[in-house]
Amino acid sequence: MEFDEYESLPEAQSVGVHMTAGAVAGILEHCVMFPIDTVKTRMQSFNAESYRTIRGGLLKMVSTEGLSRPVWGMSAVIVGAGPAHALYFSAYEAIKRTGTHGHKNGTLQTTMTNAAAGCGATLLHDSVMVPADVIKQRMQMFNCKYNSCFNCIYKLYSSEGIRPFYRSFSTQLAMNLPFHAIHIVTYEKMHEMFNPNREYNPSVHMAAGAIAGSVAAVATTPLDMCKTVLNTQEASALNKMKLQRITGIMGAVKSIYHVYGPFGFFRGLQARVLYQMPATAISWSVYELFKHCLSDSERQKENPIPSHSELLNDNVISKESVISSHCDSSHPSVRHVSQFSDNSVIPKTVERLRHNLQIPVPSVAAEDHLILGK
Q: Environment class of residue 97 by beta-carbon count within 10 Å: exposed (0-12), middle (13-18) or buried (19+)?
């Protein structure tokens, strides 16, 4: 598929395509990898001695807390990830299109545009996803005192109002802005290297997403650790440090350093990378797949294949004409026309046939009958 066909849709339609594809990709990404995310959250907690490996952490959770324990809090992610990723991918495409419109970019300008697209998309994404992350991580903790996501929302709001849902917002932005800037730049760079025509290529989308996610995850793990500390507010850690509440990114940094030292900022690194690699691979693969399928659907609506009745109405063929098709449903074509109406070929219909049959425009207008004959 050519670049223009795949990437360039009418603006009003492309927003809907990108939002739909992004929402599906986001939900699948988070749901498939949710058990690994639960282990990562516990590894970053202040009571993480029992969770030294991903496999060991999962087995311990299932054996002591039940089979469903690794997916507690998933409903919060499902509700949040759909709209968050719809906003993320639509903003990413819009900013990228605006930054590259009307001129040919150099390497530096392309990189800056991609980084700006990642940052702009993150602002919209986090405004929705941060509260969902708070609920999710509270539900993921050991000895969780909430019996459902709704119960968690109710108790948090009753005791502290809206504030706890956005307590880690600045920290999450500080983490996600560089994360997604690195993520998008790396993803686009992989495509420049291995898929310069930006064709639909599932293997490239998956590999580029995995590499981009892992690079960004390693670079931002210390900030992810701070985010977890702010979101969970573990009572045992607060008592140990004689604090009522950990507030702000500097408060989280001091708490982590006090308990674990400098290496504490990289707790859960392995789990985070192993989570992000498949998660971003799934996200980009699903996004590009849905974008590809929905784009095809939009183009077919704009340029429908002319039916037998349409050709008759346009007086392109006579009633005695015989039309047969032996192609598959995705590429139907007119195979044979036994008789034409004299001098009655409508240019509009001929152009439509040329487009849908992918026939080059002939140099002589008289060859229109030959085109219809194909």
A: middle
For residue 61, give Cα distances in angstroms to 38, 53, 194: 10, 12, 41
| Contact predicate 124/166, CB 8 Å | no
Go through the domains of the chain in sequence order and give each one's CATH number. 3-301 (1.50.40.10), 308-373 (no CATH)
Nearest to 164 by CA among 122, 129, 127, 131: 131
Asked whether residue 334 carries a pLDDT value surpassing 50, the answer given is no
Question: What does each C-alpha distance from 43 to 137, 267, 270, 358 come to in angstroms?
Answer: 12, 7, 10, 56
Beta strands in 56-185 (DSSP E): none
pLDDT-wise least confident of 9-13, 104-108, 202-206: 9-13
Residue 340 has phi, psi (to 5 degrees) of -110, 155
Q: Mapping DSSP to helix (H, G, I), strand (E, B) and coil, where does residue 77 land?
A: helix
Predicted pLDDT of residue 233: 81
User: Phi and psi dihedrals of 345, rounded to 5?
Assistant: -70, 125
Q: What separation, in Å, do the N-terminal and C-terminal C-alpha atoms of the chain show?
A: 23
* Residues comprising the chain, all counted: 374
Q: What is the mean pLDDT of residues 243-260?
A: 85
pTM of the shown model: 0.67
Q: What is the mean pLDDT of residues 246-273?
A: 87
Report the distance separating Cα 155 and Cα 335, nearest Å.
68
Distance CA 63, CA 57 (A): 10
In the chain, % helix, strand, coil (3-state, to 5) comes to: 70, 0, 25
Look up tokens 């996600």; give the residue: 176
Residues 151, 145: Cα–Cα separation, whole Å:
9
In this structure, what are the phi and psi dihedrals at residue 317, rounded to the nearest 5 degrees? -125, 160
Q: 331 CB contacts (<8 Å, ≥6 apart)?
A: none
The average pLDDT across 93-118 equals 76
